[in-house]
Amino acid sequence: MEKIVILTGAGISAESGLSTFRDEGGLWAQHRIEDVATPEGFARDPDLVQDFYNARRVQAAQVQPNAAHQALARLQSEWPSEVVIVTQNVDSLHEAGGAENVIHMHGRLDGALCAACGHRWAAPPEMAVGEPCPACAEPTARPDVVWFGEMPYHMEEIYSHLSSASVFAAIGTSGQVYPAAAFVHEAQAAGAHTIEINLEPTMGTSGFDDRLVGKATETVPQWVNRLLQQKD
Ligand code: NAD
Ligand code: ZN
Questions:
Q1: Is the omega angle on the peptide bond into residue 134 within 30 degrees of 0, that is, cis?
Q2: Distance separating alpha carbons of residues 92 and 95, to the nearest angstrom
Q3: Given ligand 1 and candidates 7, 16, 20, which is best to mutate, with the most ligand atoms within 8 Å of its CB?
Q4: pLDDT tens profile 108-141
Q5: What's this model's pTM, rounded to 2 decimal places?
Q6: Which bound ligand lies closest to the C-alpha atom of 131?
Q7: Residue 169: what are its φ and ψ, rounded to 5°?
């Protein structure tokens, strides 16, 4: 049976109340990306960066998964073959919605990483600058998120899934951040049927075979229902 690979972005969590990159008034709008989401920004002003992620961690802990997260979890449990969810999101709403084995290519807000030795542990609600690493005691704790200029996680595993996908869907992602923006081409090269599900058509839309435009909480359950009906 057919393997489905799904890439999600900030748009799938928007209706849960987490702002996307470009949302006006959102956390991201109040800061420059270079200041809060690059290794150079962290080196320059670690307090600002920790504060930014502390605020996002608090916000993410307060919100609930929405109908789109839940529909993908349902697809995973009812589809007769593998359904792989790859997310660029650092929240845990897929998991809260019941999804399993979610691949977090940009890390997670609830994780801490030691910049010195690579040790990982569960992040406290508030991380402080200079906090010692539990493994090597260096004061080099940072959020376990992938910043611009850093290598996304699990790329080998993701490419292997893309090369064996029959269906590839990109949901709530603007397709402007590489390498995720190129996944559609990888999947197409492997012969997958590709679909974009987004609030508005994106620049990368021409690369997709199919498109569903609208709010994720409406379009994703529709798409999942359609797939599960086809299966029967
Ligand atoms: P993006 O902000 O660049 O794009 C979001 C896309 O979602 C846009 O194309 C927008 O039209 C669409 N969208 C907005 N509301 C929607 C809705 N209700 N239904 C369907 N689509 C909707 O986000 P991106 O492509 O994920 O790339 C941004 C980067 O920012 C990622 O690296 C990610 O790690 C990070 N980020 C993560 C979160 C999170 O974890 N929740 C939030 C903001 C940014
Ligand atoms: Zn360490």
A1: no
A2: 5
A3: 20
A4: 999 999 999 999 999 999 999 988 999 999 999 9
A5: 0.95
A6: 2
A7: -125, 135
